[in-house]
Amino acid sequence: MTLTIRPYRPEDRAAAAHIFYRAVREGAADHYDADQRAAWAPSPEPDYASPSKLERQWCWIAERDGAPVGFMSLERDGYLDMAFVLPEEMGRGTARALYAALIERARAEGLRRLWVTGSHLARRFFLARDWRVVWMENLHADGQVYQVFRMVVDLDGPNDD
Protein backbone atom coordinates (compact mmCIF):
# COMPACT_ATOMS: atom_id res chain seq x y z
CA MET A 1 0.00 0.00 0.00
CA THR A 2 1.72 3.12 -1.28
CA LEU A 3 1.72 6.38 0.68
CA THR A 4 2.29 9.59 -1.27
CA ILE A 5 2.42 13.19 -0.13
CA ARG A 6 1.31 15.94 -2.47
CA PRO A 7 0.23 19.58 -2.26
CA TYR A 8 -3.37 20.33 -1.33
CA ARG A 9 -5.74 21.17 -4.20
CA PRO A 10 -9.12 22.94 -3.97
CA GLU A 11 -10.89 19.71 -4.90
CA ASP A 12 -9.49 18.14 -1.68
CA ARG A 13 -11.78 20.24 0.51
CA ALA A 14 -14.43 17.57 1.09
CA ALA A 15 -11.82 14.87 1.77
CA ALA A 16 -9.98 17.11 4.26
CA ALA A 17 -13.25 17.87 6.08
CA HIS A 18 -14.02 14.14 6.30
CA ILE A 19 -10.50 13.36 7.59
CA PHE A 20 -10.79 16.12 10.20
CA TYR A 21 -14.20 14.87 11.31
CA ARG A 22 -13.09 11.26 11.75
CA ALA A 23 -9.77 12.20 13.35
CA VAL A 24 -11.56 14.29 15.98
CA ARG A 25 -14.64 12.12 16.49
CA GLU A 26 -12.80 8.77 16.57
CA GLY A 27 -9.06 9.40 16.89
CA ALA A 28 -9.35 11.83 19.81
CA ALA A 29 -11.95 9.79 21.71
CA ASP A 30 -9.50 8.82 24.46
CA HIS A 31 -8.65 12.46 25.20
CA TYR A 32 -11.83 14.49 24.73
CA ASP A 33 -15.41 13.68 25.72
CA ALA A 34 -18.29 13.24 23.27
CA ASP A 35 -19.60 16.80 23.75
CA GLN A 36 -16.16 18.29 23.14
CA ARG A 37 -15.64 16.22 20.01
CA ALA A 38 -19.12 17.04 18.68
CA ALA A 39 -18.50 20.77 19.14
CA TRP A 40 -14.98 20.57 17.67
CA ALA A 41 -16.09 18.63 14.58
CA PRO A 42 -19.84 19.10 14.14
CA SER A 43 -20.08 17.83 10.55
CA PRO A 44 -18.11 15.70 8.11
CA GLU A 45 -19.01 18.21 5.38
CA PRO A 46 -17.01 21.39 4.67
CA ASP A 47 -18.56 24.77 5.34
CA TYR A 48 -18.87 25.98 1.77
CA ALA A 49 -20.24 29.33 3.00
CA SER A 50 -16.72 30.21 4.21
CA PRO A 51 -13.53 30.26 2.16
CA SER A 52 -11.16 27.34 2.67
CA LYS A 53 -8.22 28.38 4.82
CA LEU A 54 -6.25 25.41 3.48
CA GLU A 55 -6.06 27.12 0.09
CA ARG A 56 -4.15 30.07 1.55
CA GLN A 57 -1.85 27.94 3.71
CA TRP A 58 0.91 25.59 2.69
CA CYS A 59 -0.94 22.30 2.95
CA TRP A 60 -0.13 18.70 2.07
CA ILE A 61 -2.40 15.74 1.51
CA ALA A 62 -1.34 12.17 2.28
CA GLU A 63 -2.80 9.55 -0.04
CA ARG A 64 -2.66 5.83 0.41
CA ASP A 65 -3.26 4.05 -2.87
CA GLY A 66 -4.77 7.24 -4.29
CA ALA A 67 -7.24 7.90 -1.44
CA PRO A 68 -6.72 10.88 0.92
CA VAL A 69 -5.90 9.69 4.44
CA GLY A 70 -4.41 12.75 6.13
CA PHE A 71 -3.37 16.37 5.80
CA MET A 72 -1.15 18.94 7.48
CA SER A 73 -1.04 22.71 7.02
CA LEU A 74 1.29 25.57 7.86
CA GLU A 75 0.62 29.30 7.96
CA ARG A 76 3.28 31.48 6.37
CA ASP A 77 4.27 32.85 9.80
CA GLY A 78 5.24 29.36 11.04
CA TYR A 79 1.99 28.40 12.77
CA LEU A 80 1.29 24.71 12.23
CA ASP A 81 -2.48 24.97 11.95
CA MET A 82 -3.89 21.55 11.13
CA ALA A 83 -2.50 18.02 11.43
CA PHE A 84 -5.00 15.19 11.05
CA VAL A 85 -4.99 11.60 9.82
CA LEU A 86 -7.72 9.01 9.66
CA PRO A 87 -7.85 6.84 12.79
CA GLU A 88 -6.74 3.75 10.86
CA GLU A 89 -3.63 5.67 9.70
CA MET A 90 -2.40 6.36 13.22
CA GLY A 91 0.96 4.66 13.77
CA ARG A 92 1.51 3.96 10.05
CA GLY A 93 3.95 6.82 9.34
CA THR A 94 1.38 9.06 7.65
CA ALA A 95 1.75 12.01 10.04
CA ARG A 96 5.51 11.57 9.99
CA ALA A 97 5.57 11.81 6.17
CA LEU A 98 3.31 14.88 6.18
CA TYR A 99 5.49 16.48 8.84
CA ALA A 100 8.64 15.86 6.77
CA ALA A 101 7.06 17.74 3.83
CA LEU A 102 6.03 20.58 6.13
CA ILE A 103 9.52 20.89 7.65
CA GLU A 104 11.13 20.85 4.21
CA ARG A 105 8.90 23.72 3.07
CA ALA A 106 9.38 25.69 6.29
CA ARG A 107 13.15 25.51 5.90
CA ALA A 108 12.96 26.39 2.21
CA GLU A 109 10.95 29.48 3.16
CA GLY A 110 13.55 30.49 5.75
CA LEU A 111 11.37 29.90 8.82
CA ARG A 112 13.46 29.39 11.93
CA ARG A 113 10.75 28.55 14.45
CA LEU A 114 7.36 26.84 14.22
CA TRP A 115 4.57 26.97 16.78
CA VAL A 116 1.33 25.13 17.35
CA THR A 117 -1.61 25.02 19.72
CA GLY A 118 -1.94 21.28 19.97
CA SER A 119 -4.27 18.70 21.39
CA HIS A 120 -3.22 15.84 23.65
CA LEU A 121 -2.58 13.63 20.61
CA ALA A 122 -0.63 16.34 18.80
CA ARG A 123 1.46 17.00 21.91
CA ARG A 124 2.71 13.41 21.97
CA PHE A 125 3.61 13.53 18.27
CA PHE A 126 5.45 16.85 18.54
CA LEU A 127 7.29 16.05 21.78
CA ALA A 128 8.85 13.08 19.97
CA ARG A 129 10.24 15.59 17.42
CA ASP A 130 11.92 17.98 19.89
CA TRP A 131 9.05 20.42 20.21
CA ARG A 132 8.65 21.83 23.68
CA VAL A 133 5.57 22.86 25.59
CA VAL A 134 5.64 26.56 26.38
CA TRP A 135 2.38 26.48 28.30
CA MET A 136 -0.83 24.54 28.76
CA GLU A 137 -4.13 26.36 28.70
CA ASN A 138 -7.83 25.76 28.82
CA LEU A 139 -9.27 26.94 25.53
CA HIS A 140 -12.93 27.98 25.64
CA ALA A 141 -14.65 27.41 22.30
CA ASP A 142 -18.13 26.45 21.12
CA GLY A 143 -19.41 26.11 24.69
CA GLN A 144 -16.66 23.65 25.61
CA VAL A 145 -13.33 23.81 27.41
CA TYR A 146 -10.36 22.03 25.82
CA GLN A 147 -6.98 21.47 27.39
CA VAL A 148 -4.44 22.47 24.72
CA PHE A 149 -0.69 22.96 24.58
CA ARG A 150 1.21 25.87 23.06
CA MET A 151 4.38 24.35 21.65
CA VAL A 152 7.40 25.55 19.67
CA VAL A 153 10.31 24.04 17.78
CA ASP A 154 13.47 25.66 16.49
CA LEU A 155 14.26 24.37 13.02
CA ASP A 156 17.97 24.09 13.70
CA GLY A 157 17.19 21.43 16.33
CA PRO A 158 18.53 17.88 16.11
CA ASN A 159 15.36 15.89 15.34
CA ASP A 160 12.94 17.79 13.08
CA ASP A 161 11.95 14.90 10.84
CATH C-level class: Alpha Beta
Query: H/E series, N to C?
Result: EHHEEEHEHEE
| Strand fraction | 25-35%
Tell me roughly what share of residues is in helical segments.
25-40%
Q: Kindly, what is the distance between the CA atoms of the first and last residues, rounded to a whole number of angstroms?
A: 22 Å
Strand and helix layout:
Blueprint (H helix, E strand, L loop, with lengths): L2 E5 L5 H15 L6 H7 L17 E7 L2 E8 L5 E6 L8 H15 L4 E6 L1 H8 L4 E10 L2 E11 L7
Antiparallel strand pairs: 1-2, 2-3, 3-4, 5-7, 6-7
Protein architecture, described:
- This protein starts with a strand and ends in a 7-residue tail after the last strand.
- A 4-stranded antiparallel sheet has the order 1-2-3-4. It has a 3-stranded antiparallel sheet with strand order 5-7-6.
- The mean pLDDT is 94.
- The longest helix has 15 residues.
- 28% of the residues lie in helices and 33% in strands.
- The chain is built from 4 helices and 7 strands, in the order βααβββαβαββ.
- With 161 residues, the protein is α+β, with helices and mostly antiparallel strands.
- The protein has one domain: Gcn5-related N-acetyltransferase (GNAT) (Aminopeptidase), CATH 3.40.630.
Question: What's the short story on this structure?
Answer:
The chain has 161 residues and is an alpha+beta fold. The protein has helices spanning 13-27, 34-40, 94-108, 120-127; strands at residues 3-7, 58-64, 67-74, 80-85, 113-118, 132-141, 144-154.
